[in-house]
Each structure stands twice: as C-alpha cells, then as structure tokens.
Amino acid sequence: MADTPSWNRTGAAAPAGAPTGQQWPAPPPVAPPALTVGRRTFADITRLLDNIELAVREGYELPEFFDGVRDAYRWVSGRAAAPYTGRTGIPDAQQLREEDDAADEAMRTGPRRTHANGVQHAVMWVRGATEDQPWLIWQSS
After folding, report:
1. What is the mean pLDDT of residues 67-76?
2. β-strands 36-37, 40-41: how paired?
3. 96 in helix, strand or coil?
4. How many separate helices (H) and strands (E) can be counted in the chain?
C-alpha cells in the first residue's frame, strides 16, 4: 500500500479535483453485429417479408412474380424451404448462389417462369448482386 495515495485508502476523502470512479465515463455499450444473410440484414429481410404478408392480409393478390419474391424471403429468413433447391434454414453465400442458379434454370425450363424470376431477383438482392430490391413497400389504406 505504499504506492497508494493516502486519500485513496478505505474511508479517506478524496482531495478536491481528484478523479473518482464515478467521474470516469462508462465505456459505450458494444452493439452485437447485425445478423446478415448474404449482404442484407436479417431485420431488413424480415421487415420486407412482414410487409408482403400485410399486403396479403389486406386483400392484395400477389402476382406470380411477387409470390416468388415472398417465397425467397421466407426461405432466407428461415421460415420455409427454398423454392427450388428445397434447402431449409438461413442460407450461407453458397446456398444463395445455388438457389439463384436453380431459379435461373427454372426460368428457362419450368412452368412457373415468372415465379422463378421473382425468386431469382429477391435472392440476387439478398446476395448483393443487385441493389434493386423487388418489392415495393405496401402502404396500409
């Protein structure tokens, strides 16, 4: 205790102007990194999916393209299987690419080409291959 100033001992009063533990600012809280899927945040994807679901609840009938967008967002948020590869769970970059490729193949050969186009466009946006997010936000009436 020889190096401890006399005023810093138990029960001693600090001299005027001396720093105390209460004067030091607390370190700022460290926010956990946002969960991302591809290049998009999980929160952004679920917000879009929730907005699509709101539109449907309010009576909007999804055209096949937007049904594909919704199916893709359901998959990447972990709520459903991938529309064309059947994968489940939140995808990694490789799985996003494989779904993109499978949707591209379905656009060329499948019966639901417009649906596949919606899936591919949504997956490309999640991957960061395009900045054009395909769903226009639904405004409640």
Report:
1. 98
2. antiparallel
3. helix
4. 4, 2
